[in-house]
From TrEMBL:
<dbReference type="GO" id="GO:0003723">
    <property type="term" value="F:RNA binding"/>
</dbReference>
<feature type="repeat" description="ANK">
    <location>
        <begin position="408"/>
        <end position="440"/>
    </location>
</feature>
<dbReference type="GO" id="GO:0006396">
    <property type="term" value="P:RNA processing"/>
</dbReference>
<keyword id="KW-0677">Repeat</keyword>
<dbReference type="InterPro" id="IPR002110">
    <property type="entry name" value="Ankyrin_rpt"/>
</dbReference>
<feature type="repeat" description="ANK">
    <location>
        <begin position="337"/>
        <end position="369"/>
    </location>
</feature>
<feature type="repeat" description="ANK">
    <location>
        <begin position="270"/>
        <end position="303"/>
    </location>
</feature>
<dbReference type="Pfam" id="PF13637">
    <property type="entry name" value="Ank_4"/>
</dbReference>
<protein>
    <submittedName>
        <fullName>Ankyrin repeat</fullName>
    </submittedName>
</protein>
<feature type="repeat" description="ANK">
    <location>
        <begin position="441"/>
        <end position="474"/>
    </location>
</feature>
<feature type="repeat" description="ANK">
    <location>
        <begin position="304"/>
        <end position="336"/>
    </location>
</feature>
<keyword id="KW-0040">ANK repeat</keyword>
<feature type="repeat" description="ANK">
    <location>
        <begin position="96"/>
        <end position="128"/>
    </location>
</feature>
<dbReference type="InterPro" id="IPR036770">
    <property type="entry name" value="Ankyrin_rpt-contain_sf"/>
</dbReference>
<dbReference type="Pfam" id="PF12796">
    <property type="entry name" value="Ank_2"/>
</dbReference>
<dbReference type="GO" id="GO:0004540">
    <property type="term" value="F:RNA nuclease activity"/>
</dbReference>
Length: 500
């Protein structure tokens, strides 16, 4: 790779990152505000905001735009028509590669679905999770047969439309089913009650994940197999331990399944136990104890190197962390990426979890496989760092040194610049790290800011804090040179003389 080619790649990557940041931060655009669409604005109000320079085509960092938010909030069809006819592509890919008809279907908005199809919406697309439009609708809890009649009338092939795991719409539906009405609807359309996914998991497995005992009893009554999957080693108890998004199954579900002769002490071929799954979502200590009493090892390691404590560390509650840590042989166990429970808690959980793990002897100097320390995990978060001040105070009292560089020689300055937040940079300044240190790409924090920021405030603050404007990259460029090539700054006609 030539130096010029390498430099071009770096510039492209940072320009793209900058665009994402700008779109995520432009809260002044009312069309990216869910509350705005929840108010069901009139066409006149929408046009008034467009006249102020706000875009109905812009998407935020998550890939959501005006039309998706309008569909979420169930705005009238006249509004949806207006947004599409103003130029929003009916097959535009949004969050998770879903087009507008995915969102309309998930809301059961048949009127919008009919309109979108008339305008050319494709029904043979899949999102990034492998869901077809019809499977995404049922995954979202839609139970109205009229929605699925519409799909069939427009060419849907329920037998052959499958997600990345090979699950057809019947398998997707069973874990969300409240009764057997929709299941019987799909069976009446020719789907097979003995259908399985690519791994051989059938309706009973998927229904167990949903935890509806009445559904499970009906499946057993109809002769659906309840046995363990011979290929993966998974049984319905392991599926039930997964639960759903933000939801875990109760003890009675596991007791029912065990009563059918299923083994609670089950491990998949990838090393996953029920405790691995439950530790992510359940805070019911009685359920965790139930599985330990059945012989499930709380120190079991899956193929990715994760334990139950590691899975819990990111987002579970203190009582769960305490319970599992007391049963953990090595508080500093790391997975294949070198993540420890403490690192994951610093990144995603509360200050009290961080403090507790340190009190249990967790190593504050631990590094991941790339040589990153806890400062990396404190700052490398989605959005603003969580409970930043509290965690800094806890780590500082424990003796953590925020001046130490990461494995790639980046410092807290490099990490913080990525957030484009002057308030955060002021806090970083107090750590005393050298603002002019270069990472292994030969760039200082000021260089990166010059490449990606969309205004001068971050640049000016870095200079006021001691950043050297004369420092050059490995290509001999100064911050001024990089800023001149920053299209985000160019759009704002920014005067860059202060970088001389």
């Amino acid at each position: 790779m030539t130096p010029n080619y390498k430099r071009s790649i770096i510039m492209i990557l940072f320009f793209m990152t900058g665009l994402i940041w700008v779109s995520a931060q432009k809260v002044e655009n009312p069309f990216l505000d869910r509350d705005y669409w929840a108010s069901k604005p009139s066409i006149a109000d929408i046009e008034a905001n467009i006249s102020k320079g706000h875009s109905i085509f812009e998407a935020n960092g998550g890939g959501f735009d005006a039309t998706t938010y309008a569909l979420f909030a169930e705005n009238p069809i006249s509004t949806i028509k207006y947004l599409i006819e103003k130029g929003n592509d009916v097959n535009k890919r949004t969050h998770d590669s879903r087009t507008y008809i995915f969102w309309a279907a998930s809301r059961g908005n048949l009127e919008a679905m009919e309109y979108l199809v008339q305008k050319g919406a494709k029904l043979d697309l899949k999102d990034s999770h492998g869901y077809s439009v019809s499977s995404f609708a049922v995954a979202g809890g839609q139970q109205d047969p009229a929605i699925f009649d519409f799909f069939i009338a427009n060419g849907a092939d329920f037998k052959n439309e499958k997600d990345h795991h090979g699950a057809d719409i019947l398998l997707v539906a069973i874990s969300r089913a409240k009764d057997f009405k929709l299941i019987d609807y799909f069976l009446g359309k020719g789907l097979d009650i003995n259908t399985t996914d690519n791994d051989g998991n059938g309706l009973f497995h998927y229904a167990a994940q949903g935890g509806n005992i009445a559904i499970l009893k009906e499946l057993k009554k109809r002769g659906v197999s309840t046995s363990k999957n011979a290929t993966t080693g998974e049984n319905a108890i392991l599926f039930a331990s997964r639960g759903g998004r933000g939801r875990s199954n109760g003890l009675q579900v596991f007791e029912y399944l065990e009563g059918l002769g299923l083994n609670a002490n089950v491990t998949s071929k990838s090393g996953i136990t029920p405790l691995h799954n439950l530790s992510r979502s359940s805070n019911d200590l009685a359920i965790l104890q139930y599985f330990i009493d059945k012989g499930v090892n709380p120190n079991a390691v899956d193929e990715e190197g994760n334990t139950s404590l590691l899975n819990a560390a990111s987002n579970n509650k203190l009582e769960v962390i305490k319970y599992l840590s007391e049963k953990t042989k090595n508080i500093d166990h790391t997975n294949k990426d070198g993540h420890s429970a403490l690192a994951l808690a610093v990144q995603n959980n509360s200050g009290e979890i961080v403090a507790y793990l340190i009190s249990r002897g967790a190593d504050i100097s631990i590094l991941d496989k790339k040589g990153n320390n806890l400062a990396y995990y404190l700052l490398k978060t989605r959005g603003k760092p969580k409970n930043f001040d509290e965690k800094v105070n806890i780590l500082s009292k424990a003796g953590f040194d925020f001046k130490k560089a990461q494995g790639d020689k980046s410092t807290v300055w490099h990490l913080a610049v990525d957030k484009n937040d002057i308030a955060l940079l002021k806090k970083i300044n107090a750590f005393g790290a050298d603002i002019n240190l270069k990472d292994d790409q030969g760039n200082t924090a000021l260089h990166y800011a010059a490449m990606k920021t969309n205004n001068t405030e971050v640049l000016k603050y870095l200079i006021a804090s001691g950043a050297d404007v004369k420092s050059t990259t490995e290509f001999g460029e100064t911050a001024l040179d990089l800023a001149k090539e920053n299209e985000l700054l160019a759009r704002n006609n920014v005067n860059l003389e202060f970088l001389n």
